[in-house]
Automatic annotation (TrEMBL):
It is found in: Membrane. Residues 25-99 form the Cation-transporting P-type ATPase N-terminal domain. Residues 1-13 have a biased composition (Basic and acidic residues). Its EC number is 7.2.2.10. The chain crosses the membrane at residues 82-100, 112-132, 284-305, 325-353, 858-885, 985-1005, 1020-1040. GO terms for cellular component: membrane. It holds the Pfam family Hydrolase_3. PROSITE patterns: ATPASE_E1_E2. GO terms for molecular function: ATP binding; ATP hydrolysis activity; metal ion binding; P-type calcium transporter activity. Keywords: ATP-binding, Calcium, Calcium transport, Ion transport, Magnesium, Membrane, Metal-binding, Nucleotide-binding, Translocase, Transmembrane, Transmembrane helix, Transport. Residues 1-22 are annotated as: Disordered. It is an enzyme of class 7 (translocase). It comes from Durio zibethinus (Durian). This is P-type Ca(2+) transporter.
């Protein structure tokens, strides 16, 4: 069999094997059934021969490498754009004509080649930028591979193999996992070696806490969070060790499914709303250019093709190839005039400036077009853990015992992070700590395996987040002065260190699922042994016989006190707080002389975890705390801003329903007493919902808890189908497919995994939801500014088209050559268009509803306005050309200083027949230091002699476009209410553009390249006189626009409503 056939066979086997595996739910079968299914003995493991056999079927334990788009295909894709194609055709035609004209030599040759070369240069730069952006897209899949484990401890052939490369695992392998290990494949837990095993799987499931694992079976239809007897590839062991059986490897693991979903989502990436608009505009432009070129061709066909009628039939055709190519060049000039070549560059510049502004607000943009897409975001789908909350457990309530039995004291604890200086305990007596609070602080500090340390500007936890939160509480409680010593001052764990010096830990009673508590035996500074215990409140109360009062005295725990504590526990649980109780015991007869020595009889009691419950009996209950992953302080205001801006917020989390609902009420997604039964669903309930789209269309906030990656993707997909523009936030591996699918994927910079960051369009440097809202405001401002410069550039291009069309229609010599138009479009128009990107944002920008993503860039009224302006530009540029040939004075300005000869308007329009005019002669004229003489051929006065008239036309065009940029400051606002100095950058840009124009006029070499000559002062006065009225004309049109705005707005609303229905 050939190699391809062999691969095909393997692939078929793998598919068959994976489907067979998927029909076997290992989590719903007991350990014995799993061993039988995978034909393995946990003591011996698989044999080497069996491993090879299975590898032939299942392949390697690694994620597939999808082939990226080839560089050739990427290059071709860059030309899959209407504007780019028109430019390409124009450049090729220009090049061919330049080659043809090159035989004539001289000045024509230089100018003719500049144009196609400049266009080719624009296209090359555009393609390079495009390719660079595209090639970043596939990095998300590479980052996912780094999450995979490198090595594993495996039992094979009855021997334990340490550090076996994880890619060599096959289903049926027996693997031992220890604390700190990265799980190498999806596995069924066979047995726990330690009393407890906890796994941090939040990056895959979105859960805010580490999850305890068990060997017990769970229902077959459990969601990923419910599979308590399974460990998943890419997650991390944080506590204990266990023996597991590999059930799925490579692409069949949960992380492999995420990999497939990311790849699938990256295949379905859509263009941004702006790109769609520009593509539509390009198509309309192509049609308009085609029609105008055809009209120009038809109007001038008589100049290069003539015939005579003989017997009613056309005969004796005469064709002039030279004239034909001349009018062909005019058609090319039309195409160059109609396309805003500078537009892609200006849009890129404006978006790049926007990204810099956003970076200052902690939003790092990875893909430029997403800046604009942010502006029309209608729905933000936010993860809860780490985005709306801090992803740092914190104690928010402390309940201590009162001064007499049957009384409790409750304290609110401020602070939302692991920073011990963030917040304080409210209502606590400041002068001294009572004995009961001392005991709570002592247990929290000593019965604890976590740590808190400073990393840069923030604090990070090592170990279990709940234990780290208790250490932060101890620091907030302070240290009793009577114990003296304040060494370690300045350390984030100063008080905890002092408690641990006073109470030396000599033994640990590990946490287990049955008794739900952890205990430590300490050698107290008083010389006595005592037991300090923390754990689930109900379980501690069951094993407690006494209670410690405020002054430290111990009384019996009566039923009333017990009920009071349980009532307090119930209230805290209702607020979605995770509760922990504290208790202690001072009479440890068996351990009175124990000091950690293994030979001591009491040590035998500690070796068997089944003794722990009896050791932790007859306890003295001291108090309890409520912990949670608290919401960020600024989120509530950000959600209010979203509501004002017409943006809906949906919370999608892997956490449980009651916790998520409590947080959503607190941050304002839901009202504090609102009925949310129809607004809060689990992922599973949403999948089973009969009308998912209508559920998503509800106004106001929505919550989806216990959501898996596929649920997130489905929600994003349905919202996009409904025409919403979706921003999706996330930090975990599980969020990556939905981040890729959303219009804007927003990843967390601090807590986010590399996978999420690579799949995103934007990264939040501070992991803060309110940063997204600020970025949306910035996106809206950028879009408004882009509209301003698109309007400006398009109105300028309409003017150029009108100019060429009028030239052709009137039959006068060509006023401007293509290279001059290209210069105006690229260089002269560029700075003012870019400066319009600095227009200040409207004050009420976040009080308006989001624009529809299908709103047109240019409304019918704006198009009419710019047709009127364009027509004026055409008349002004052609008019000044005609004035120079036919008048010596205009508006009192003397134009005779250069000594040029006048001709009649009819001669100018019939210039092609010049050779047949009798006694036609012209006198020489000057331009700067040059003298133009036409003694040998007077008809050259209408060809090479048009250089002065052509310069006037070009200068009028530049001046009009500078004045027109002032018109573009506001869509409908007068220059009296929005004067030019509101955007000083625009005034600077106008100066730069005029400076560049002077440069090509007064530097001889450049003047030769562009076919122009220097102008005198009077000629400049004529230019200003002809150009300035464009401001007055647009002021009149803006006034009409303001008067009719209300009726046009209501008509547009009706039509969009009709469309939606």
């Amino acid at each position: 069999m050939g190699r391809g056939g062999e691969d095909y066979g393997k692939r078929e086997n793998a598919i068959a094997a994976s489907s067979e595996q998927e029909t076997f739910p290992a989590w719903a079968r007991d350990v014995k059934q799993c061993e039988e299914k995978y034909q393995v003995n946990r003591e011996l493991g698989l044999s080497s021969a069996e491993v090879e056999k299975r590898r032939q079927i299942y392949g390697w334990n690694e994620l597939e490498k999808h082939e990226g788009t080839s560089i050739f295909k990427l290059i071709l894709e860059q030309f899959n754009d209407t504007l780019v194609r028109i430019l390409l055709v124009a450049a090729i035609i220009s090049f061919v004509l330049a080659w043809y004209d090159g035989e004539e030599g001289g000045e024509k040759e230089i100018t003719a080649f500049v144009e196609p070369l400049v266009i080719f240069l624009i296209l090359i730069v555009n393609a390079i930028v495009g390719i660079w952006q595209e090639s970043n897209a596939e990095k998300a899949l590479e980052a996912l591979k780094e999450i995979q484990s490198e090595h594993a401890d495996v039992v094979r052939d009855g021997k334990k193999l340490s550090n076996l490369p994880a890619k060599g695992l096959v289903p049926g392998d027996i693997v031992e996992l220890r604390v700190g290990d990265k799980v190498p494949a999806d596995m069924r837990v066979l047995s726990l070696i330690s009393s407890t095993v906890r796994v941090e799987q939040g990056s895959l499931t979105g859960e805010s806490e580490a999850v305890s694992k068990t060997v017990k079976v769970v229902p077959a239809n459990s969601d990923i969070q419910g599979k308590k007897c399974m460990v998943f590839a890419g997650t991390t062991m944080v506590n204990g060790n266990c023996i597991c059986l590999v059930t799925q490897i490579g692409m069949n693991t949960e992380i492999g499914k995420v990999h497939s979903q990311i790849h699938e989502a990256s295949q379905n990436e859509e263009d941004s709303p702006l790109k769609k608009k520009l593509n539509e505009f390009g198509e309309v432009l192509t049609m308009i250019i085609g029609v105008i070129c055809a009209l120009v061709w038809l109007i001038n066909v008589k100049y290069f093709l003539s015939w005579e009628y003989v017997d009613g039939w056309p005969r004796n055709f005469k064709f002039s190839f030279e004239k034909c190519t001349y009018y062909f060049e005019i058609a090319v000039a039309l195409a160059v005039a109609a396309i805003p070549e500078g537009l892609p560059a200006v849009i890129t510049t404006c978006l790049a400036l926007g990204t810099r502004k956003m970076a200052q607000k902690n939003a790092l943009v990875r893909k430029l077009p997403s800046v604009e897409t942010l502006g029309c975001t209608t729905v933000i789908c936010s993860d809860k853990t780490g985005t709306l909350t801090t992803n740092q457990m914190a104690v928010s309530k402390l309940v201590a015992i009162g001064s007499r039995p049957g009384t409790l004291r409750s304290f609110d604890v401020d602070g939302t992070t692991y920073d011990p200086f963030d917040g304080k305990i409210r209502g606590r007596p400041v002068d001294r700590m009572d004995a009961n609070l001392e005991m709570i602080a002592k247990i929290s500090a000593v019965c604890n395996d976590a740590g808190v340390e400073q990393s840069g500007n923030h604090y990070v936890a090592s170990g279990m987040p709940t234990e780290a939160a208790l250490k932060v509480l101890v620091e907030k409680m302070g240290f009793p002065e009577e114990y003296g010593s304040s060494s370690g001052h300045g350390s984030p764990q100063r008080c905890c260190q002092l408690w641990n010096k006073l109470e030396l830990r000599i033994a640990t009673l590990e946490f287990d699922r049955d008794r739900k508590s952890m205990g430590v035996i300490v050698n107290s500074s008083s010389g006595r042994k005592s037991l300090l215990v923390k754990g689930a409140v109900e379980n501690l109360l069951e094993r407690s016989s006494f209670i410690q009062l405020l002054d430290g005295s111990v009384v019996e725990l009566d039923q009333y006190s017990r009920d009071l504590i349980l009532h307090s526990l119930h209230e805290m649980s209702t607020d979605a707080l995770r509760c922990l109780g504290f208790a202690y015991k001072e009479e440890l007869f068996e351990f009175a002389t124990y000091n950690g020595d293994e030979d001591h009889p009491a040590h035998q009691l500690l070796l068997n975890p089944s003794n722990y419950s009896s050791i932790e009996s007859k306890l003295i209950f001291a108090g309890l705390v409520g912990l949670r992953d608290p919401p960020r302080k600024e989120v509530r205001q950000a959600i209010e801003d979203c509501k004002a801006a017409g943006i809906r917020v949906m919370v999608i989390t892997g956490d449980n329903k009651s916790t998520a609902e409590a947080i959503c009420r607190e941050i304002g997604v839901f009202g504090s007493h609102e009925d949310i039964s129809s607004r809060s669903l689990t992922g599973k309930e949403f999948v089973d919902h009969p009308d998912q789209k209508n559920h998503l269309r509800q106004s106001g906030g929505l919550l989806f808890s216990r959501a898996e990656p596929r649920h997130k993707q489905e929600i994003v997909r349905l919202l996009k189908e409904d025409g919403e523009v979706v921003a999706m936030t996330g930090d975990g591996v599980n969020d990556a497919p939905a981040l890729k699918l959303a219009d804007i994927g927003v990843a967390m910079g601090i807590a986010g995994t590399e996978v999420a960051k690579e799949a995103s369009d934007m990264v939040l440097a501070d992991d803060n939801f309110s940063t997204i809202v600020a970025a949306v405001g910035e996106g809206r401002s950028i879009y408004n500014n882009m509209k301003a410069f698109i309007r400006y550039m398009i109105s300028s291009n309409i003017g150029e088209v009108a100019s060429i069309f009028l030239t052709a229609a009137l039959g006068i010599p060509e006023g401007m050559i293509p290279v001059q138009l290209l210069w105006v479009n690229l260089v002269t128009d560029g700075p003012p268009a870019t400066a319009l990107g600095f227009n200040p944002p409207d004050k009420d920008i976040m009080k308006k509803p989001p624009r529809r993503s299908d709103d047109s860039l240019i409304t019918a009224w704006i198009l009419f306005r710019y047709l009127v302006i364009g027509l004026y530009v055409g008349i002004a540029t052609v008019g000044v050309f005609i004035i120079w040939y036919t008048h010596h004075t205009f508006l009192g300005i003397d134009l005779s200083g250069d000594g040029h000869s006048l001709i009649t308007y009819s001669q100018l329009t019939d210039w092609g027949q010049c050779s047949s005019w009798g006694n036609f002669s012209v006198s020489p004229f000057t331009a700067g230091s040059q003298v133009f003489n036409f003694d040998t051929n007077p008809c050259d006065y209408l060809k090479s002699g048009k250089i002065k008239a052509s310069t006037l036309s070009l200068s009028v065009l530049v001046a009009i476009e500078m004045f027109n940029s002032l018109n573009a400051l506001s869509e409908d606002g007068s220059l009296l209410t929005m004067p030019p100095w509101v955007n000083p950058w625009l005034l600077l840009a106008m100066s730069v553009s005029f400076g560049l124009h002077f440069l090509i006029l007064y530097v001889p070499f450049l003047a030769q390249v562009f076919g122009i000559v220097p102008l005198s002062l009077n000629e400049w006065l004529l230019v200003i006189a002809v150009a300035f009225p464009v401001i007055l004309l647009d002021e009149v049109l803006k006034f009409i626009g303001r008067c009719t705005a209300r009726s046009r707005y209501s008509a547009a609303r009706k039509s969009s409503k009709h469309k939606a229905e």
